[in-house]
């Protein structure tokens, strides 16, 4: 004589899964906002004579917290954090490298500018360490800080032509992420222009190829 297995345990288990799926105890995740690095209106190209040197701009080296896409903030003291629900569109060192390249391309005095991802000839290479790329609160007000240790290298003999620390601070209009991002863009433009003029001043001292 065979005994039929009761369907009740299976039905009860199905009902339990249905209840659990309908009543989630996990909160909805906060939407993630992705920000581009803003740039100012494109200036006119320089009219000075063009240098023939080719420049390679390498991606800056950075600490672990600065090498990602999080938008870093120092709310107080030595505590570093990140804005919640906000990210850069790319890693911060890549954004700054591309901004530097863009500045040289806009300027026009050194027409051949590339990065380490393309196999193009270069007479000079720009190496750097990104020491700060963050917003900091000073007297309760946010301001963006970008600090870059740069060095120019003659690729013919691998000698260092020059080295310099660049530091730019830019106040944010208010504490909102949008205003802070705008301040990042302004600070990046200022730093790029300083690096450009410094690089060209040393490139002019090298013999034309």
Question: Mind sketching the topology for me?
Answer:
Blueprint (H helix, E strand, L loop, with lengths): L7 H15 L10 E3 L19 E3 L3 E2 L7 E7 L2 E10 L3 H16 L5 E3 L8 E15 L2 E14 L4 E13 L5 H27 L6
Parallel strand pairs: 1-5, 2-6, 2-7, 3-7, 4-7
Antiparallel strand pairs: 4-5, 7-8, 8-9
Short account of what is shown:
The chain has helices at 8-22, 92-107, 177-203; strands at residues 33-35, 55-57, 61-62, 70-76, 79-88, 113-115, 124-138, 141-154, 159-171. The chain is an alpha/beta fold and 209 residues long.
Number of helices: 3
Radius of gyration: 26 Å
Span between termini? 100 Å
Coarse shape:
elongated
**Secondary-structure class:** alpha/beta
Annotation, overall tally of beta strands: 9
Secondary-structure element series: HEEEEEHEEEEH
**Low-confidence regions:** 1-27
Strand-residue fraction? Answer: 25-35%
Mean pLDDT: 86
Helical coverage, percent range: 25-40%
Main beta-sheet annotation: 9 strands, mixed
